[in-house]
Specification:
Elements lengths: L10 H24 L1 H9 L6 H30 L2 H19 L7 H23 L2 H4 L5 H32 L4 H25 L9 H6 L7 H7 L5 H30 L5 H29 L1 H21 L3 H29 L5 H29 L4 H19 L4 H10 L8
Length: about 425
């Protein structure tokens, strides 16, 4: 492992960094994908015609708030060495909000909306600033495999959290409990693993860029309007800008899969909740394998070509899911989605790391996070609107998701990795640290 890390970086730091992915993956797996999304639509919102749209608007609202906060937080973290501090408070907030969500029933719909939005906002911040550490930990030649280590380890965390949740659900169902009785316990499982793993891991991860307290105070000035300044500062990073546009497009499709897979499985394919959890468990296994093995493959064949392969595979997955009428076809599509999810997310993060100048990682990854949050609004909201406007035709809505991957593939074709890497090296601000 040492051969793939920057000088001065210990292997245990990479393991601690991967444990941050391990901790937060349980939130996306259980809350956003496998359990609570379908529970929110079917129980909290009473399976109303607008329930799917409300769920997508809730998650998208959290993404909007994240977009407003990231530019300021990203520049502050670069100036003040504050990535660890942001991750600490965001992890704690996500855990507490998720635990509180377990106390909310269908009589408090808007409280559920608020807590889902708050926990999702905190998760988004954790994800973004965890990714910002990649540029400091790995050598440029190993961004793909180190990013893949993190993503694959993260999916193992998702499987652990989902596995514990599934065990509880099976036991509760055997005792005759209803969803309103056993779903809250799964939220407590998520909260305990999130906080119990992320905070100790964070204590082992070093912050490699520190400044004086006077600079810390100055870096807060400007609020979220710093977004414009951050974007202007990437004027020389043409290929980074094009990559961010590509990320918006294809992640819009990914976020549809993440936030609405359980809803589609139960409402279109007729899956029971335990079947859906088993399906998502399989997706996590495939995603972990895809992220781990594809990372090494990516470093060998090149980041752009690797990402292009995953986008083509996403298009195939959508076609199988939309055209297939059997459960077997849907299981095949879900497995392919898992492989694509791990590999494409890892590939995108590694590409951003390669095109981000040293000393500006948090600022650049804040823009990356901004792009992801924009896609988290576009994808699910478009899906929710299409379902609503077509009177529940979720197959039509899912078919339109394929257009996001086609657009991402087209935008990726204009990215020149070598030119982008040269521009990033020219813009480094503290190369001497390494």
């Amino acid at each position: 492992m040492r051969n793939h890390l920057r000088p001065g970086v210990a292997p245990y730091e990479v393991l601690a960094w991967a444990f941050l992915d391990f901790a937060n993956s349980g939130y996306t797996t259980v809350v956003l994908t496998a359990v609570y999304s379908a529970y929110f639509v079917g129980v909290i919102a009473g399976a109303a015609p607008w329930a799917t749209l409300l769920w997508t608007l809730t998650v998208s609202g959290a993404s909007l708030l994240t977009m407003l906060a990231l530019p300021t937080l990203g520049m502050w973290a670069d100036h003040a060495g504050g990535k660890r501090l942001i991750i600490f408070w965001a992890s704690l907030l996500c855990g507490l909000a998720t635990a509180a969500l377990a106390l909310v029933d269908s009589s408090a719909l808007w409280m559920a909306v608020a807590l889902v939005g708050l926990s999702s906002l905190a998760f988004n911040l954790c994800e973004t600033f965890t990714a910002a550490f990649l540029r400091e930990l790995a050598k440029p030649s190993a961004y793909g495999r180190v990013s893949g280590w993190g993503w694959s380890f993260g999916y193992l965390g998702g499987m652990l959290t989902l596995g514990l949740s599934l065990a509880w659900v099976l036991q509760a169902k055997a005792q005759g409990q209803s969803a309103s009785q056993f779903v809250p316990v799964t939220l407590w499982i998520v909260a305990m693993i999130y906080v119990g793993v992320s905070l100790p891991a964070l204590a082992c991860l070093k912050e490699r860029h520190q400044v004086e307290s006077g600079q810390k105070a100055q870096s807060w000035e400007g609020g979220w309007l710093r977004l414009r300044a951050s974007w202007q500062r990437t004027a020389e990073l043409i290929d980074l800008r094009r990559l961010l546009g590509c990320c918006v497009a294809y992640h819009a499709g990914i976020f549809v899969v993440i936030t609405l897979a359980a809803v589609y499985a139960e409402q279109v394919m007729g899956f029971q909740q335990t079947e859906t959890m088993m399906l998502v468990f399989l997706v996590n296994i495939a995603a972990a394998l895809g992220a781990f093995f594809f990372g090494r493959f990516q470093d060998r064949i090149g980041h752009r070509r690797a990402l292009a392969i995953t986008l083509v595979s996403w298009i195939v997955m959508v076609a199988i899911a939309v055209l297939g009428q059997s459960r077997e076809a849907f299981w095949l599509a879900a497995t392919l989605a898992g492989l694509n999810m791990g590999s494409s997310q890892s590939a995108g993060r590694a590409m951003v790391a390669q095109l981000a100048p040293l000393g500006r990682q948090s600022e650049i990854f804040a823009l990356w996070g901004f792009a992801l949050r924009l896609s988290a609004i576009l994808g699910p909201v478009c899906y929710g609107l299409l379902v609503w406007l077509t009177d529940g035709q979720q197959r039509v809505a899912l078919g339109c998701v394929g257009l996001f991957f086609l657009l991402g593939l087209w935008l990726l074709s204009s990215v020149n990795i070598q030119r982008g890497t040269d521009a990033a090296m020219a813009g480094e601000t503290f190369r001497e640290k390494f």
